[in-house]
Amino acid sequence: MSRFAALALLIAGVRSADLPGLTFTPNFNHFSGFLNASDSKFLFFWMIESQNDPGNDPLILWLNGGPGCSSLQGAFLENGPFRLAPDGREITENENSWNKFSNLLYLESPVNVGFSYSSRNESTLDDHTTATENLMALIHFFTLYPNYKKNDFYIMGESYAGYYIPTLATLVLEQVDYRFNLKGIAIGNGVVEQGWDSVFAPFYAHSIGLLGKHQFEYFTSRCCLSAKSPDTCSTTSECVKMSVEMTMNIPGVDPYDVSEHCLDYLGEVKQETISCFNDSSFEAYMNRKEVRTALNVHHDLEWKVCKNLADPAGRQYNESTFPSMQPFIHYILKKAVRVLYFYGDTDMVCNHMIGEYFTAKLGGTPVKDSVPWLFNGRIGGKKTTYESDLTYTTIHGAGHMAPQWRPDVTAYVIRSFLNNQEF
């Protein structure tokens, strides 16, 4: 057995120590380590127990997207109990943490993302392999912690996890020898069809006044069958390039949250990271020796928020394994697993029009169509519910990472979904 493999087996499930910079005393347990995705691939996990009733509260597996971005974004910036300050010096308590009502399992996937690694210098380069390895890691987790097998299980995430989640959920439901208690999936600002994130962007930008009439007509006349239906647009490389040039480089506009600005003081933004997001303090914190020790990481590989996934030969991650998530969602719904799509409505990259068109294409009959809902007396978003246990909703005023930009509203939606209650 290699040194790396031995370490992975040794530290799986060790209780995490207090994190450097912590400004509050946690009233919950949390532990971390590595799960076996194969005999040579080890995925870092961080299990954070519920503050309420960990023995009975639901278990949520959280996955960030990319492909190549760490799910610890969720833990430190979005829905976890820890909130890392912008300067990376302190960790305060997130009052809207989802672990107030659920157990949270963060998994850095695929291999080479975050602290996850391979002992053979391998890479995971397509969605099918990612789903298979995530399944193996889940089986390892429930083998180590069988007490969680009875808890209601949910898979959630955002962005490119719109591909990770349905493919993984399908494998989970297909298992014969190993049963999971999967009750639902929830996807925030998700990628759902190849190329839709690009060709839908001009429609969104035009609808909010960021793209002029002539530019919009130029795009639709060359790339779309109908200027009223973005799902009729071609996703050829030429049309994708045209869309990106029109929408992703508007001066001063953050395409992941059009209500914010890309400020010059952020400095050079690395191509691997989310646009306009300065990740230097986050990465500096995660690469501190005492942080790694607290999280039971016993290697010195560099941690980055997002990595360019490629193998030693330079082959990139293949995002073309599956053209659409429609067959997967159809299958999941037929298995009586509830599905929620939630979209921050100020995100242009994976904008809410994508979710609206995609859920409508699934063919269900709307029970309630585009109904506004309130949070604390103010508009929280608009939702459409279908007969097939499928729900689509916007999160008003949130960008690409809805739990970060509107943590209270998003937590309310997720808690309602877990309890199968109206919101």
UniProtKB/TrEMBL annotation:
Q: Which InterPro entries match?
A: AB_hydrolase_fold, Peptidase_S10, Ser_caboxypep_his_AS, Ser_caboxypep_ser_AS
User: What GO molecular function terms would the record report?
Assistant: serine-type carboxypeptidase activity
Q: What is its EC number?
A: 3.4.16.-
Q: Which Gene3D superfamilies match?
A: alpha/beta hydrolase
Q: Does the keyword Manganese apply?
A: no
Gene Ontology BP term (one): proteolysis
Q: Which keywords fit this entry according to its UniProt record?
A: Carboxypeptidase, Hydrolase, Protease, Signal
Signal sequence coordinates: 1-16
For this chain, the family text in UniProt reads: Belongs to the peptidase S10 family.
Q: What is this protein identified as? A: Carboxypeptidase
Protein species of origin: Bursaphelenchus xylophilus
Which lineage? Answer: Eukaryota, Metazoa, Ecdysozoa, Nematoda, Chromadorea
